[in-house]
């Protein structure tokens, strides 16, 4: 026989301040806390929405919204016509609070995403691409490897950075995540060990889980990469593939120096490990730092695969990325890609090809805007939350903040009730680790960051209660 809670019984269990805004989110948080604390068992049928609404003295719409949020997060299973039962989410499943599903909803300040606004070069590139497009309409309209003009521009940029590259070594993709997905799907399978940094980019972890591969984390220190941990993890796990972010690492912002790159490539060669280097942030230096050669410059083309993207330097709406590898591997990746979608859009490729012509202007603009935003975020944190610690990165787009207690997830939940969406540390770790960290991006304008930190500080002391700010700032540079 199913266990069942009546409306009055659940109303007595939840403790929600009537002034909480939005109330439905606070109600969902209270029910979820009951489940996670074990006070409300799994597979208990909850009261119908109208019954709970009556018991709480709120509208049915409010309870419906709370139940919907619990379903999205995996804490409620519903069968039409039968009712809703408490549940625990699959640890590897996606939820409404994960970064790749969160949208610009409810007027919240979006500090979960490290995505800068478009640069000033974009409108001109759009206009030029529109003029270029007619010349490309006579053919079939797609090339699985990517347009020649764009592959030539990408190859030339690698060559200018110290890594001789031919266009045949480039595969154009629908963003960096698409490239990661293709590479891991081609080269890994169920049970295969895949070495990753801890913390690391959440989307990469998602692909590893999707493949059924075994994640092998190697922890980073407060100074960056620990070669002993990386090399011992390679050796002991026999990992055939390692995913690393050497350039303004996401989320820590660390930049790997040439000596460490050479040592890492050497260790990978000795252990038979293929390195996949994500360079999505490589062009985003904020301070004067020595120019680091691409990681692939320290190995062979068969040993290091490089992932790149247009989204961080120019604009996230340009879903154009690329993979640099051997020509043979590029062709294999293109064949795999064709089983899902054949090619990237012509127009977007033409836009990015034009943007490469003015890449130094974009880098200078990002340096100014990200530098100002970083300084504003650092100043606000030191003024409002002085017990939190962090290292100011020389580039990239985020601070990796150590909290004074392991409370990142509940803080993110409380901050949402105050109008700020945060990215707690466990998003970037394996098996729920990194609860004492937050990633705070500085890709929003300074005034947005200052306001967001103020709200987070309030959420830290007041919890998910109290009035939520009625107005939000427009995040425009």
Structure description:
It contains 15 helices and 16 strands. Helix 2 packs across helix 4 and helix 13 runs parallel beside helix 15. The protein has a 7-stranded mixed β-sheet with strand order 6-12-11-10-9-7-8, sandwiched between helices. The protein has a 3-stranded antiparallel β-sheet with strand order 13-16-15. Strands 1-2 form a two-stranded parallel ribbon. The longest helix is centred in the C-terminal third of the chain and has 26 residues. It is of the alpha/beta class. Helix content is 39%, strand content 13%.
Brief summary of the model shown:
The chain is of the alpha/beta class and 477 residues long. The protein is built from 15 helices and 16 strands. Strands 6-12-11-10-9-7-8 form a seven-stranded mixed β-sheet, with helices on both faces. It has a three-stranded antiparallel β-sheet with strand order 13-16-15. The protein has a two-stranded parallel sheet with strand order 1-2.
Could you list some keywords that capture this structure?
globular; 7-stranded mixed beta sheet; alpha/beta; 477 residues
Radius of gyration over all CA atoms, rounded: 24 Å
| Helical content (DSSP H or I, runs of 4+) | 25-40%
**Which spans of ≥5 residues are poorly predicted at pLDDT below 50?**
91-104
Secondary-structure content class: alpha/beta
Strand order of the largest sheet: 6-12-11-10-9-7-8
What best-fitting shape do the alpha-carbon axes yield? globular
Number of helices: 15
Instruction: Sketch the major β-sheet.
Output: 7 strands, mixed
Strand content: 5-15%
Q: Roughly how many Å apart are the termini?
A: 58 Å
Kindly report the average pLDDT value: 89
Number of strands: 16
